[in-house]
Amino acid sequence: MDRKVFFSDGGVIISDSRFIASGYIYNIRDIISVRLGVVEPPRSLAVFILSIGLLFLLTEGALFVVGGCLIALGVMTWLFVKTSYVVVIKTATGEHKVLKDHNSSYIEQVIRALDAALINRGVSAVSGAVPVRGSSHVTHTDFPPMSPPLIE
Fold first, then answer.
1. Which of 34, 74, 98, 99 is 20 to 30 A from 105 via CA?
2. 47-93, pLDDT tens digit by residue?
3. Judging by beta carbons within 10 Å of its beta carbon (0-12, 13-18, 19+), is residue 62 exposed, middle or buried?
4. How many secondary structure helices (H) and strands (E) does the chain include?
5. Which residues, in sequence order, are CB contacts of 7 under 8 Å at separation 6+?
6. Whole-prediction pTM
7. How many CA atoms lie within 13 A of 146 on its CB side?
């Protein structure tokens, strides 16, 4: 039986029946919804380093120089930790974070492909077109690419 593949990149494959990511296989029919999740990095370490650096700046001598270095390190820590984006799927067992990446456009591509697979599943169920085993001809509906979300 022919399978329609909506997305394939590295270890992530989304077809009309399966979603494979991070070594796990999810059935499309088990997925209720999909959404974008944002994981903000913990910035408490940067705040702690900045605080110690400011305290050392109030002293004189060698600790003043150490305080300046700590402030520079704290600012670099704050700037270089990145926000992560995740694909969150909802199933009957709850919400699961299944794919994580720092590239938001990559995660949005995966979500659009999952949306298309979910819509394809719904269209097939509504139209009643069930492929017959052994049939050499299977029709598929091609969907136009979705526009990016308006809210970022």
1. 74
2. 999 999 999 888 878 888 888 899 999 999 888 888 899 999 998 89
3. exposed
4. 3, 7
5. 13, 14, 109, 110, 113, 114
6. 0.64
7. 16
How far from 30 is each of 19, 25, 70, 114, 119, CA to CA, in Å?
10, 11, 50, 12, 13
pLDDT value, residue 58: 86
Q: How many CB atoms lie within 10 A of CB 39?
A: 13
> Which residues does 1 contact at the CB level (< 8 Å), separation at least 6?
131, 133, 135, 138
Q: Tens of pLDDT along 101-137?
A: 999 999 999 999 999 999 887 743 333 333 333 333 3
Query: Residues with Cβ < 8 Å from 86, sequence gap 6 or more?
Result: 36, 37, 38, 39, 97, 98, 99, 100, 101, 107
The whole-angstrom separation of Cα 78 and Cα 106 is: 24
Q: Encoding tokens for residue 98?
A: 């299944």
C-beta of residue 1 within 8 angstroms of C-beta of residue 133: yes
Task: Let me know how long the chain is.
Answer: 152
Chain centre to alpha carbon of residue 142: 24
